[in-house]
Write a structure and sequence with these properties.
The chain is of the alpha/beta class and 526 residues long. The protein has 16 helices and 17 strands. Helices cover 42% and strands 19% of the residues. α5 packs across α6 and α9 (226-277) runs antiparallel to α10 (283-320).
């Protein structure tokens, strides 16, 4: 691989395999330069694994990764660390502790070494928090005490404070409302050094200067944001499909000519045999003619076989240019849910709202308004009128981290055979060795799909699905598949989401909005 002289990150023949031997990345070459790059690829292509390798969180099985300096890294599973305090989440806890010690009169040299050149850190923290709409009093809180969106913003702000030459963000807009997404985008626009962002948020990807795709083990970079890259890929694929169609037609024509030629040769052979049998030619002359005919037939066959082989090679080359992308396949259960059955009762500012039958409810509102807390209270029994429900939490913390995907799903589907569960997981693109690996080793997208499998494959099927930010960690195609599956679902839905397009497409009947102070009211539409 020829690496650009100004590359911030260079990957040379990088392979990574999990301890069970399953290969996540194989012989990857690529480079990232200074500026903002969106890293895209299908779920399961290895984007999160690649970021962990660059960050040093994982070590390549073979090959090497060279970086120009320290790397700041925002992992996809950030919000799982609920007991982390905000100062530590920002990455400033040690320096703040040293500053406080010095201010209290402790002149131990280690405190000065810890502070280094960061004497202005408190002022920079205050400015960074103000920029993202938060205040300094967040420093003494725990991650569990802030919303998922606030935790993500705080983590990104912390990385901006650290000023590392390279920064990696894995799905930074998960759980963010529209206002905070805009603040994060503003932060990203001014990011110094090299920034690599993995995201399914199309609006954030439009703020990137380049788009790099991890596809089939290779990294290719396009100079432009996601929309320009997507247009380029679509044009390329349209041309590839047309070239493949032309190549297949040419192959069909060459095969037909080969068959027609064989028919003509067989006819000539029969005519020659008949002439010899009738005694119309001397034996020596008949033998010479037969040899010439055989040589001519052989030459013709060779020429035609060569044309067929060339046409087949052209077909293979053209087909190879067409992407063979896997999509998740969702087939939701059909619960027996009468329209008169009462499922949930909400107390709003203007009276109670009762959800009954297969109604679809969206809960919207800004970060920190209490949407996830509302769902937590519901599943604890506050307002829930049915025990036949499935719950997908925002933090994806309903899994046994040490157990496999198979074992996690078996816990809710004890009557299903391991083979049945493997087949169902395969439809969610959890295949091969990934089915048996500990959930803790899976990517955010894979973890989400295991949670979704527990929800959808539960026995008996739930009559109510409670989903907290269900489009997090899904690529664009997978979001479309989930939307189609939920659209066909005949049970009730309660969805918390900042993705209004997704909510509109699943057909919401009732919209409940939470204000910043937690007050709930029903609104006419999204």
């Amino acid at each position: 691989m020829s690496t650009p002289a100004h590359a911030s990150i260079a990957l040379r023949d990088v392979t990574f395999a999990w301890p069970d031997g399953s290969v996540a990345l194989a012989h990857v070459d690529g480079a990232f330069t200074e500026g903002r790059t969106g890293l895209v690829g299908r779920n399961g292509s290895g984007k999160s694994t690649l970021l962990r390798l660059i960050a040093g969180d994982l070590t390549p099985t073979s090959g090497r990764i060279d970086t120009i300096g320290d790397v700041g890294y925002l992992p996809q599973t950030l919000t799982l660390h609920a007991d982390t305090d905000v100062a530590r989440l920002l990455g400033v806890d040690r320096v703040l502790a040293a500053l406080r010690a010095i201010e209290s009169g402790d002149v131990d040299e280690k405190h000065f070494d810890t502070v280094g050149d960061d004497w202005d850190l408190p002022a920079r923290i205050e400015a960074a928090l103000e920029r993202i709409g938060l205040s300094a009093d967040h420093l003494d809180r725990r991650v569990a005490d802030v919303s998922g969106g606030e935790a993500m913003l705080l983590a990104v702000a912390g990385l901006s404070l650290r000023r590392t030459p390279i920064t990696l963000l894995d799905e930074p807009t998960n759980n963010l409302d529209r206002a905070t997404r805009a603040r994060l985008a503003d932060l990203v626009d001014d990011w110094p050094g090299t920034l690599i962002v993995v995201s399914h948020d199309l609006e954030l990807l439009e703020h990137m200067e380049a788009t790099a795709e991890l596809y089939d083990g290779s990294i290719t970079t396009f100079g432009g944001p996601y929309s320009a890259w997507r247009e380029s890929v679509d044009i390329e694929q349209a041309a590839a499909v047309q070239a493949a169609r032309t190549a297949h037609q040419a192959l069909k024509s060459e095969k037909k000519q080969r068959v027609d030629a064989e028919t003509r040769l067989a006819h000539r052979a029969r005519t020659g045999k008949k002439a010899q049998a009738d005694g119309g030619l001397p034996k020596i002359l008949a033998g010479a003619r037969k040899r010439r005919a055989q040589e001519s037939a052989g030459a013709l066959r060779g020429t035609l076989d060569g044309k067929v082989e060339s046409a087949q090679a052209a077909v293979d080359a053209a087909d190879a240019r067409i992407r063979d992308d896997d999509d998740i396949s969702l087939d939701l259960p059909t619960p027996d849910l009468p329209r008169s059955r009462r499922l949930i009762e909400f107390a709003t500012a203007h009276g109670d709202v009762v959800v009954q039958g297969p109604e679809r409810v969206a809960v919207v509102g800004p970060n920190g308004s209490g949407k996830s807390t509302l769902l937590t209270r519901l599943v604890a029994g506050d307002g829930l009128l049915t025990d036949s429900y499935g719950y997908l939490p925002q933090r994806l913390d309903g899994l046994d981290e040490t157990a496999s995907a198979l074992t996690n799903v078996q816990s809710v589907a004890p009557d299903s055979t391991p083979g049945d569960i493997r087949n169902r997981l395969a439809r969610l693109l959890i295949r091969g060795a990934a089915v048996d690996r500990p959930v803790s080793s899976l990517s955010g997208g894979e973890r989400f799909r295991v949670c979704l499998a527990k929800l959808l494959f539960a026995e008996p099927p739930p009559t109510l699905l409670i989903l907290d930010e269900p489009t997090n960690n899904l690529d664009v195609t997978s979001v479309r598949q989930l939307t189609q599956a939920l659209d066909a679902y005949r049970g009730a839905l309660l969805i918390v989401s900042h993705d209004y397009q997704f909510l509109r497409e699943v057909g919401i009947d009732i919209v409940l909005e939470l204000d910043a102070d937690g007050t709930m009211r029903q609104i006419p539409e999204l």
